Amino acid sequence: MASLEELRSERLKKLKVLRDGGYNPYPAQTEINTSIEEAVSNFDHFVEKGRDITTGGRIMALRRQGGLIFVDLFDNGAKIQVLLKEDTLGRTFELLADTIDIGDFIQATGKLIVTKRGEKTIEAEGWKILAKSLRPLPDQWSGFQDVEERLRKRYLDILLNEDVREMVVKRGKFWQSVRNFLLSKNFLEVETPVLENTAGGADARPFVTHHNALDLDVYLRISTGELWQKKLMVAGFPRTFEIGRQFRNEGMDAEHLQDYTQMEFYLAYADYEKGMQLVEELYKYVAEETFGTLEFKIGEFDIDLGKKWERYDFREVVKEMTGVDVFEAKIEEIEAKLKELGITYDKKGFNITRAMDNLWKYCRKQIAGPGFLVGVPIEISPLAKRDEIDHRRTQRFQPIIAGSELGNGYSELNDPIDQMERFDEQAKLREAGDEEAQMKDEEFVEALEYGMPPTCGFGMSERVFAFLSNRSTREAQIFPLMRPKDK
Fold first, then answer.
1. What are the residue ranges of helices labelled H in 21-146?
2. Cα–chain-centroid distance for residue 127?
3. Distance (Å, rounded) from C-alpha 57 to C-alpha 43?
4. Is the dihedral of CA 88, 92, 97, 102 positive or negative?
5. Do domains 4-137 and 156-309+369-469 have the same CATH topology?
6. Where in the chain are the domains?
7. DSSP code string of 20-33
8. CA 132, CA 7: separation in Å to the nearest integer?
9. What gap in Å lies between CA 380 and CA 202, rounded to an integer?
10. Is the pTM of this model over 0.85?
11. Beta-sheet strands, E only, within 120-238
């Protein structure tokens, strides 16, 4: 079997033949007037009219039978056969036969016919090279199975695997359906800064970069404009949302990435109860629009988003599953329970907040859902309103599906004095080594002092799409971040 370099060398020779023959192997212009998809879907109409069409795409199959060449052209998920005849094409036939390969892009002009084998075909009266490929496509079955290689060369993975191609299409539908739903509810789509002086709106470790013009270090945002969108509530916009990228400098696993798409909306004159109603409606709508169903197989869970969404109280669930009352237990007791359950956790900056969070994560992995986590302790929710009856709890909610939290929402804290006190507590945690504790943002507190209406905020990331697709978050990205390939 020839090596890659030998095959590439042969294709470079063919490239020279094309150029020596006066053909540009990489022209800027094409004469395409009909896509392959249009040709296939309107085939009978084109046959009836009997007029020539010009279409183009990538050659995915190539076979010669004497004075005939059959190629399968592929573009945007559609395929059509092209028949090239020596009698029709004359001297350009041999040039084509000597120079084209699987992977090349060509255009073909001719009439649509049906072959004796019933194959929808363009009988070419002319052809043109559009792009000469210098590397052979990998064998779909035996030569392109390594997961890391597929992710590194994602463009080939998409080209050769229909399942991956369909994932890319559904990903687009997913975010468009989110946008359509919110626009239908009279939300305004906004854009907020990606570079921030203070990384706010979430518990996460930020990426740091340097702004040369201002000569200061700034952070890549860890939320999709949470504090900025709340300032828009102060400014008098009652319904806003943003879909964009956010960045968290944390560990990678099947559910978490560092660079990903997130949506956040903010709804004035609403609390977390109204937020849960809207989010349940949103998830059902998006599932139907993207996947055409409300029933999913996610890991070991069978999920029906159409059934009643339950409520899972943080304190009650943890107590039932572990025997620990998070409102009464000291940090030493929780840490002992974590060790007893074999739960690994980061000991750097470990505190009561991280202790509660790790214990909850152990519990929620056992919950199928769909439903909402409620009653989250105040220590874990520095931006949420306190429960009006039990001040140890917050008006926070998180959709629980297939053992994971697929979103996060609150009755947003709009008391500037309470907010500053929470920021002060978070600052103490940061000083003690908790790099995920929130930074104090005095400018945001100043905005709250001008008055923000009662507001419900909610955020969801592309992890929702990954779960409904039953894929890891990395596999559900189009181009996941990879380490540079060793030379």
1. 36-41, 43-49, 86-89, 91-99
2. 39
3. 17
4. negative
5. no
6. 4-137, 156-309+369-469
7. HTT--SS-S-----
8. 13
9. 10
10. yes
11. 120-131, 188-189, 195-196, 208-211, 216-220
Contact partners, residue 157, CB within 8 Å, separation at least 6: 144, 150, 151, 164
Q: Is 341 helix (H, G, I), strand (E, B) or coil?
A: coil
Instruction: Tell me the Ramachandran region of residue 112: left when phi exceeds 0, alpha when psi lies from -120 to 50, beta otherwise.
Output: beta
Q: Could you give the CA distance from residue 457 to residue 268 in angstroms, rounded to a whole number?
A: 9
Tokens, residue 319: 């107590």
Radius of gyration of the CA atoms of the chain, in A: 29
Q: How many residues does the chain have?
A: 487
In the CATH scheme, what is the homologous superfamily, with its name and number, of domain 4-137?
Nucleic acid-binding proteins (2.40.50.140)
Best CATH choice for the domain 156-309+369-469 from the list 3.30.930.10, 3.30.1120.10, 2.160.20.10, 3.90.550.10:
3.30.930.10
Q: Tokens at residue 430, please?
A: 């940061």
What does each of the 487 residues of the chain score in pLDDT, given as a tens digit? 788 899 999 999 999 999 999 999 999 999 999 999 999 999 999 999 898 999 999 999 999 999 999 999 999 999 999 999 999 999 899 999 999 999 999 999 999 999 988 999 999 999 999 999 999 998 755 557 788 888 999 999 999 999 999 999 999 999 999 999 999 999 999 999 999 988 777 778 889 999 999 999 999 999 999 999 999 999 999 999 999 999 999 877 777 889 999 999 999 999 999 999 999 999 999 999 999 999 999 999 999 999 999 999 999 999 999 999 999 999 999 999 999 999 888 777 788 888 999 999 999 999 999 999 999 998 888 778 999 999 999 999 999 999 999 999 999 999 999 989 888 888 888 788 777 677 788 999 999 999 999 999 999 999 999 999 999 999 999 999 888 877 5
Secondary structure element (H or E) that encloses residue 227, with its range: helix 226-234
